[in-house]
Amino acid sequence: MGRAFTEKKLVIASHNQGKVREIRDLVGPLGIEVVSAGELDLPEPEETGTTYIENAELKARAAAEGSGLPCLADDSGLSVTALDGDPGIYSARWAGPGKDFSLAMRKVEDALREKAAAGNPDRSAAFVCALTICWPDGHTESVEGRVHGDLVWPPRGENGFGYDPMFVPEGHDRTFGEVDSDWKHSVSHRAIAFEKLLELVGLDRRSAKAG
Question: What residue stretch is flagged as signal peptide (predicted)?
Fold first, then answer.
């Protein structure tokens, strides 16, 4: 068990509206007031970490220092087996300065076609999510979740964000871009990490709902 989270307000240390929306949906049932770093006009720190957890921790620390409130940060990405884990922690950067994920998905597909032409047809991948809570005193608690699946082309579906339209989770036949948010929240890398974090910091959905 990590440090217990007892506060009633939490900053989501992200300017990505897709992430903010998903995390807000996950946190909502706990009765905690949520505000995003974007809403507080907090600057986005440079992501200099070499792992998902390192980046989540530096983002959470920066937001906690800037707001004086406990902060929850996410660092996530798509790790493609045939590409030796790329784009990985650089998943957002593959979308360029305009955050064009249709471009990012095309880059992944082009790289996979090159691998297939060279004799490696593997299209397996995993979505990875690290979550960190940082308190204003600098204490952090971090977890990581991942969901495995395969990549399809062309992308399918208008839901979700990022690489969701080309990712089919293991054991299913629809992409994250084709399913509704409630279903995605039950199986996604972010949902898996969030459940781990709830247990780590002593939060319980059932008691929150009952209260």
Answer: none
